[in-house]
Amino acid sequence: MRAREIMTIPTFALTPSATLEEAAEMMTGHGFTTMPVIDGDGRLLGLLSEADILRAPVPAGDPDTGVMLGGGPRTAGSVMREHGLAVPGDLDVREVASLMTDADVRSAPVVDGGHVVGMVTFQDVLRALTGSRRS
Asked: Which UniProt keywords are listed (predicted)?
């Protein structure tokens, strides 16, 4: 079984100009822990995780604000990781599982020619390896 056979589509993605608040709303609204950040042509630029958002610096001069509160422009592009794990669609599911485990990530974008075509999560991999069905 290959990554393209188990990936989730359509893939929700962020642009670099998306605010961290918008990113957090999209993640919580759709149940994602990591989202791809893409350019206008759908090419992968980086990955933004929940942890990246929570680690984002609190705006200077406002020490009482918590994460995600107040401050200036904090965008997906300014906080994303540019060198995250991405997998090709023809990669075997066992290899996907190994790469995700080694990279300590719970999801990875599936790319074709640099374009994001889907997302694979640990749940997708576990379903494929155990023969479970999506509910």
From this structure: CBS domain
Provide the 10 A C-beta neighbour count for residue 59: 14
What domains appear along the chain, each with residue ranges and CATH number? 3-130 (3.10.580.10)
Q: What is the pLDDT of residues 77-87, one digit of tens each?
A: 988 988 788 99
DSSP state of 39: -
Angle formed by the axes of helices 93-103 and 122-130, to 10°?
140
Residues 111-132 as b or e (16 or more Cβ within 10 Å = b):
beeeebbbbbbbebbebbeeee
Determine the average pLDDT of the residues in 42-71.
71
Tens of pLDDT along 88-127? 999 999 999 999 999 888 889 999 998 999 999 888 999 9
Cα dihedral sign, 10-51-107-77 = positive
- Return the C-alpha torsion angle 35, 21, 16, 26, nearest 10: 30
Q: What is the pTM of this model?
A: 0.80
CA 29 to chain centre: 14
